[in-house]
Design a protein that fits this description.
Length: 256
């Protein structure tokens, strides 16, 4: 390819919003020459590479905006440490069929068993698949909604939790809520009902949620919408954090 044609293609690619093509056109033509590609094969190569670059850019941008505390995947989860947890149930969730169906997923169990890890991993998988995601603890969501309501901006702030295809609500039940706070949670749950997916983690069983939300009727209304289409996974094993702490203590004792 002549330098004049290469320069013209780079300029056109830039105008079309294809910066990767503008930077790599010479590499593409080299690969085409080496592979003796026909015109259609060369076009397929260029378009496939551009799509992959664009998808990766969207994925990284989605993660940046998601507020996820980390970007762990299911490959990093130690299922062997939780023998009572069936990996197939978690991997079924990772197919994202529940997200396709605008259903929910609930991960229940005591602190430290990896609920948040799995919730984040599912959100990362959803982001990779093209879904918008957002992460919040229940306490942070309630605090932000209360502040917005006091400032007369509740409708606008609700959008933060209603717009994403997948909303991760972490640590449900760690702090009891007042009735007015529980009503804000109900608004989020009811407005997302059959319109978007929720992935939540909780250290409380559903029978204890009336204590969490301070009102049995309100808790029942929240559960009614949340559990209508919901996959529930209970993890009742040992704590990863405690395991790591014990290992650290053992190392300290060995050194001593």
């Amino acid at each position: 390819m002549s330098e004049l044609v290469s320069t013209r293609i780079r300029s056109t690619a830039g105008k079309l919003g294809l910066p990767h093509l503008a930077e790599t056109i010479n590499e593409y033509t080299r690969r085409a020459d080496e592979g003796k590609m026909g015109y259609l094969d060369f076009l397929d190569l260029v378009l496939s590479e551009e799509l992959a670059v664009r998808d990766d850019r969207r994925f990284r941008q989605g993660l940046r905006l998601s507020k996820l505390p980390h970007h762990k995947t299911l490959d990093e989860y130690d299922f062997s440490f939780q023998p009572d947890l069936d990996p197939r149930k978690v991997k079924d969730l990772a197919t994202l069929s529940f997200v396709d169906g605008k259903a929910n997923a609930a991960l229940l169990g005591p602190p430290g068993v990896g609920k948040t890890h799995i919730a984040v991993a599912l959100a990362v998988a959803a982001c990779r698949a093209g879904y918008s995601i957002y992460f919040t603890s229940l306490d942070d969501m309630v605090r932000n909604l209360k502040a917005a309501e006091a400032a007369g901006r509740l409708t606008n702030k609700l959008g933060t939790y209603l717009r994403p295809s997948v909303l991760v609500v972490d640590e449900v039940g760690y702090q009891p809520l007042e009735r007015a706070e529980a009503n804000l949670v109900f608004q989020v749950i009811s407005k997302r009902y059959e319109k978007g997916s929720i992935i939540l983690t909780s250290n409380k069983t559903f029978s204890e949620w009336s204590q969490v939300f301070g009102d049995e009727v309100l808790a029942t209304a929240i559960l009614d919408r949340l559990l209508h289409h919901c996959e529930v996974i209970s993890i009742n094993g040992p704590s990863y954090r405690l395991k790591n702490r014990l290992k650290a203590l053992e190392r300290d004792n060995d050194v001593a």
